[in-house]
Every structure is written in structure tokens, then in C-alpha cells.
């Protein structure tokens, strides 16, 4: 969580905890420059939710509930929390999304989102960074 707080500060927002009404788990308060997450979240859910909300910050989203913005925030969170080398190592051991998520300390939906962010070509898998550039590849060519 410490790395997310540092990242939030780099993006110019603060992170706060509060009791949120169900079903809300977190939100980005653009007007006040803060991310808020629910007090009752598990540590894994907390990381995933805060990273998602930081995706809204990064993309400059205002408002809520726009599917394209939610998808962009999910991609940002997945690419922020999942390192391609670690994902590649785990994928070689087991293909179960829940198992990989547990090992990475993220929610399974972020693993599924990350899987949609990779490109597989001719036995090599390429992963994109938060900024959209290819940052890692794994597969046949690694030996």
C-alpha cells in the first residue's frame, strides 16, 4: 500500500479511508484532489480499489459510471499492480486466475484485465506499461 500512497502523491492527490455505503468501495473526488476507499476492505481489495481510483486520477476522469472510464481505470490498476515478469512466472506454474491473483495480491478481476492487456504473437507475449508502451515480453525467445 505504501507504493500506492507514494504514487498518489506523485499524481497530486491524497488517499483517505471512510465508511462508505454499500455497494461503494471507493471513489475519486476530483474537486478535492483525493481518493477515498472503504474502511472495511480487505488488504487485497484496498490495493485494487486504490489503484483503480488512481487510474481515474491519471486519466483526468470527472464524474462516475462511464463504462469507458471504468475500463480505462481497470487497465491502469492492472498495469500498475501486476509486474509482467511476475505474472509470466506465475502463469507458467498455473493458469487459474484466482490462484494467480492470490499470489500477486490483487483481485481476480485485475488479473483478467491484465490478461486482456497483453498481446500474444507467435509464441511470445508482450505486456504494455501504464503509459501504453510495450515493456516486457516472455515466451520462446527467452530461452
Please provide a brief summary of the model:
By secondary structure, the chain is of the alpha+beta class. The protein is 49% helix and 20% strand. The relative contact order is 0.12.
CATH topology name of the largest domain: Arc Repressor Mutant, subunit A
Mean pLDDT: 84
Rg over alpha carbons: 16 Å
| Poorly predicted runs of 5 or more residues | none
The helix/strand series, from N terminus to C terminus, equals HEEEHHHHHEEE
How many DSSP E strands?
6
Tell me about the biggest sheet? 3 strands, mixed
User: Could you give the order of strands across the largest sheet?
Assistant: 1-3-2
Shape: globular
Percent in helix = 40-55%
Helical stretch tally = 6
How many angstroms does the end-to-end distance come to? 34 Å
Features:
143 residues; Arc Repressor Mutant, subunit A; 3-stranded mixed β-sheet; globular
Account of the protein in words:
It is a single chain. The protein is α+β, with helices and mostly antiparallel strands and 143 residues long. It is 49% helix and 20% strand. A three-stranded mixed β-sheet has the order 1-3-2, with helices on one face. Strands 4-5-6 form a three-stranded antiparallel β-sheet. β5 (124-128) and β6 (134-139) form a beta hairpin. The longest helix has 17 residues, at 43-59. The radius of gyration is 16 Å and the shape is globular. It starts with a helix and ends with a strand. The model has no long low-confidence stretch (mean pLDDT 84).
Secondary structure topology:
Elements: H1 2-11, E1 14-18, E2 26-29, E3 34-38, H2 43-59, H3 67-81, H4 84-93, H5 97-104, H6 108-117, E4 118-121, E5 124-128, E6 134-139
Parallel strand pairs: 1-3
Antiparallel strand pairs: 2-3, 4-5, 5-6
Helix pairs in contact: 1-2, 2-3, 3-6, 5-6
